[in-house]
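WARN retry 2 of 3 for item q-0093 after timeout on previous attempt; input resubmitted unchanged.
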Amino acid sequence: MSVDLNEIEQAEDELEDWLVNQAESGVPEVVLIGLLRDYADDIEHLGYVPRVWGHSNR
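OK item q-0093 returned
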């Protein structure tokens, strides 16, 4: 699987936009950091990004 740098940049931009929107909506940065860490830990543990997130994965 080849890596498309444009797709990576687009995903990064979308994540940044989402984070900014959440912070502007009043979600504390510490909550956002915790969410990102939890998801990163799950992905690292599983070795892939689940296409459907369920309570069994969390």
